Amino acid sequence: MTTTSTRASERFRTADARGTVRVARSAFAGKGRVAFGVFVVLVIGAAAGLVTPWAMGRSVDVVLEGGDLTDIAWLAAAMVVGVIVFAALSGLGLMLTSQLFETGLARLRERMLAAAMRLPLARIESAGSGDLVSRATDDVAQVSSAIREAAPAISGALFTVVLTMLGLAVLDWRFLIVLIVVLPVHYLGARMYTRDAPPIYQQSRVAMGERAHHVLGGIRGLPTVHAFDLGPRLAGPIDEHSWWVARWELRARIVVNRLFGRVNLAEFLGMASILFVGFLLVDSDAITVGVTTTAMLFFLRLFGPLGQLLMVMDSLQSGLASLSRIAGLIEECEEYEDADREHPDAPEPVGRVLVARDVHFGYDTGPEIVHGVDLTIGDGEHVALVGASGAGKTTFAAVLAGVHPASSGTVTFGGVPIGELGDERRTREIALVTQEVHVFSGSVRNDLRMAAPDASDGALVGVLERVGAHGWVSRLPSGLDTEVGSGGHVLTPMQEQQLALARLILLDPALVILDEATADAGSAGADELEASAEEALRGRSALIVAHRLSQAARADRIVLMDDGRIVEQGSHDELVGRGGRYARLWAAWSVGRSGE
Fold this sequence. Notes:
Blueprint: H1 17-27, H2 32-48, H3 51-64, H4 69-118, H5 121-127, H6 129-171, H7 177-220, H8 222-227, H9 231-283, H10 289-340, E1 354-362, E2 368-377, E3 382-386, H11 393-401, E4 408-413, E5 416-417, H12 418-429, E6 430-434, E7 442-443, H13 444-449, H14 457-466, H15 470-474, E8 483-484, H16 493-507, E9 511-515, H17 522-537, E10 541-545, H18 549-553, E11 557-562, E12 565-570, H19 572-578, H20 581-594
Parallel strand pairs: 3-10, 3-11, 6-9, 9-10
Antiparallel strand pairs: 1-2, 1-4, 4-5, 7-8, 11-12
């Protein structure tokens, strides 16, 4: 069973065992002393847990030997002390273990989020947002669940099992025959589980990612879904991938049930072995009935810890599968950052001229979209890029912004190849503002400070005034302190774009690429938003992917694209005078505008 919506080669990688361990170890760096403290507490606590079964076995011998009540009282006192110490240290060990692993989980979650934020947009698009969201939500939640459920249980149960086995050896080494009987059954059961479970959980996580991909696609296009009644059509793929998830989860449950069957068999064989060995040893006067009783109580005491270990194996395997996916994402980010640092000595750009020469581009899974385009944007020049839908404007703009590397050809800014600038330099020099802007959750002040963390309130008010947003911001319930974004005050598309343009001014890049950034304003707000965009672009070089030809007409130069090629370019007056394609577009636009 496989899902095919996103090709396996395009998904983010899944780390191997070595990579997963490396990422996990890094999450606990500097916690050696805490780990040693946990070790000491759990060892002493597990030893204290053996006092009660030992005292009960000894009580049997005292009674059989005709001992007095004083001996029984001392043994009872020992049991009370043992229970208190065991409970106290077990609780302390659980608290310290939880603290240790919660710290590691917090570090892992931070690294996961940081990696997701640093990956190139082109890589995220090729993998699919569903894969990324699934790793950031489902996988992080699964690792969190495994850490909170499995880690404390495993650490406590493991010490109990080891010390109990040592206790059996101290009573009589021949009781260890139980290991010869029980361990092979446990080993075979665990081996079969660890062989069958990981690939099933991996496929389950992948299926969840595919389901999230389709769910997110429907949610993001909800207005279109409602407008064209696409709900039933979109529900089909979601139902299909939900069933894939259910099928993989059912397979996982079958594997778990088989494991528990083998565990019950091992428990039966272990009890029978203890009774058989104890009978032979008592019959030969090698040990007493009380020692046999202690041995049986020791073994019965193993049921709980062994059950815990095996009960959490399901959660542990699922958590490890998710951890390997998180580690794979972190590894990809590290490799990308290493590649990004390959040009640390690249020169600083000289001037603000962007030059594209013979640029070709096509996505890995599709045909070429941009065909040998040449374009120069001069220092301070505003160039409008126009054309019919599907002409390749947005794709070409993304290549110029460095979002997608050109398949062939060169793109330089200030004489430096875009790929050698590195992310930090490139985003400082070149900013891309698209039609789909994002409002960050939090106050308006914090949203603006995403671009300039040290900006004063005066500076924020100044940029809001420049883009024409200060009026409506001042009328918000709490002004700059008004919560916006998810769960906050709802902004109109034009207000969201004005906030994005205000952030752009605060960022202060040398070159701005506006990809239909004013398209959502509607006719009523188009002029106002275009004025905001002009103010934001003042003093900068700019490439404007224009949805409205009125905006293109004000540019220094207009470039018309068709089928991934530049077919016309010049000033508005020049192109209209030529009577070519742009002139026909302008005539049609003008007729449409006159009818509004």
